[in-house]
Structure formats: structure tokens, C-alpha cells
Amino acid sequence: MVIRYRNDLRRELEILKKKAEDVFKRRSQGPTQVERPTGTLQALVPGKQIEFESGCFYRVLTGAEDIWEDTETFHREYLRVLSNPFPPIRPEQEPLKVLQNVSPQEICYLDLETTGLNMVPLFLVGLMYTVREKLFVDQLFARDYTEETVVLTFLKDALKKFKVLVTFNGIHFDLPFLFDRMSVAALDFSPPDFHVDLLPLSRILVKGTTPNHKLQTLEAYLCQRKRIGDVSGSEIPDIYHEFVRTGEAKDVAVVFHHNRLDLLTMLQLVTVFLSDRD
């Protein structure tokens, strides 16, 4: 049953417009930012407009090898640990066993970028999955607040072909958020049958060997990679509101990059966790 929230859509759009105006005022008065290439969304993040049902949205579907030159290496290792028979593993690794019971093509990594933490629109859904031993990053982008419903409708159908969803903090954030926004859009939503949330798993497996269990901390310690030119998660809502107001994509292009890195790190964490069984 779909819970229909009694939202005044016009009022919600007015509030979001006001936020965008406030962002512009703050940024115009703030310190000078590092210069990034300016341009349109199509120029900085090449993709396609997708017409779906009664609306449209922007989709960036990219072979991972076009983003990272070492894709073949880390994806091959990922497929290797999934295909090898799992030896007896520790009880705390138990949630990972579901990954052996399906094919790699049935596993989808998901990461959301939203305009806040609760009952506000999402604007970017990042998916990562394998097709015929090739890794793809699939990003669904609402170019303004009105395109969110089309993104959600497309996502609802896209997830039906997967059996396992992998997230980082999906139990407490991504899935509840999706259920809320699907309900606002009056959409029935059934996620994949199995869900592997890497955050609680990391807290058990990594324990006190890292300063904390944030995704970028685990990335630095376990994947041995430090991000350059990334954006803070706290800045992302303001960046999106400004994009909606101006159409300038220089900062939102960095959000696409941030989203891709989050997906990559999740996949690499699975490889690390399945490789370390001692």
C-alpha cells in the first residue's frame, strides 16, 4: 500500500526556489573558490535526455574503464573473489555470503545524492553494476525538482533486474529515503530481495583499525586512495540548488564525480572484505 503524503507541491517548489536564492547570496559573499571549468551539464558530464513515461530526466551511462584507467584490474579482482568458492568465514562476515549465491550481473551498488536528510527531494541516483564482465556506472539525474518523480519511476523499474543491493548506510539512510520519496510520488517500491549494507559490516570487520568508519576514511586506509578535488557532502545540497537556479554545471559535475567515487569505493570494499578471511 502506498502512503500518500499531503504535500503542497507548489509550496515545496517555492521553498526550494528560496533555498536556491539563499545559496546564491551566500556564495556571492563567501571566499573565492578554486576555479573549475565552466559550462553546461552536457559539456561537462556528457549524457542523454531520457524520455520515460510522462516526463524526462538526464542519464549518464558510462563504462567504468572510461572513468578510471585501472578499471580492468580492480574489476577483475572483484569478479575473482566473487567466483572463488568461499572457505569457512567468520560469523561477522556472514552478510557477504549472499554475494556468492547470485551472479555478479545480479548485484547493484547504489548511492544517493539528495537535497537534505529527511523528506526532501533527491536529485542524483548512482548505480554500479556488471554486464557481461564489464563494469558500468549509471547515474540518473533530475535537472530540476520536477524531474525527481521520473527518476524514481525509472529507478523503480531498473532495480527489478537485480537480486542484491549493496549500499553504505543503506539501512538507515538510502532505503528509508527511497521509500519516503516513492511514497510522495505515489509509487509502489520493492527493492531487491537482498541488501548488503557495508557500514555496519565495516564497524565489525575493521573495528578500531581506522580512526572512524566513514566511507572516505575506509577508502584511504583499505583502498589506499585519497580523493583530490572532491566536494564535501555538506556542500552538495547547496551546489544542486545553485545549478537549478543558474544551469551552470561546474560544481554539479564534481558531485557526479563524488558519486562515482563512492560507488567505486563500495565495490572495492567488498573485494577487500572477501579477500581478508584470516
Structure report:
- With 278 residues, the chain is an alpha/beta fold.
- The protein has a single domain (9-26, 40-275), classed as Nucleotidyltransferase, domain 5 (2-Layer Sandwich).
- It has nine helices and seven strands; from the N terminus they run ααββαβββαβαβαααα.
- The protein has helices at 9-29, 41-44, 71-83, 148-158, 170-184, 198-205, 215-222, 236-246, 250-275, and strands at 48-52, 55-63, 107-114, 122-131, 134-141, 164-167, 194-197.
- α1 packs across α8, α3 (71-83) packs parallel to α9 and α7 (215-222) crosses α9.
- The protein is globular, with a radius of gyration of 19 Å.
- The termini are far apart.
- The model is unreliable at 1-7 and 27-33 (pLDDT under 50).
Low-confidence stretches: 1-7, 27-33
How would you classify the helix and strand content by structural class?
alpha/beta
Major sheet strand order: 1-2-5-4-3-6-7
**Apparent shape:** globular
Listing every helix as H and every strand as E from the N terminus to the C terminus, the arrangement reads HHEEHEEEHEHEHHHH
- Looking at how many chains there are and whether they match, the oligomeric state comes to single chain
Total strands: the figure is 7
Number of domains: 1
Q: What is the terminal-to-terminal distance?
A: 45 Å
Radius of gyration, in Å, reads: 19 Å
Question: Overall pLDDT, averaged?
Answer: 88
Give the second-level CATH assignment, the architecture.
2-Layer Sandwich
Portion of residues within helices: 40-55%
Q: Strand count, sense and closure of the main sheet?
A: 7 strands, mixed
The CATH homologous superfamily is called Ribonuclease H-like superfamily/Ribonuclease H
Question: How many distinct helices?
Answer: 9
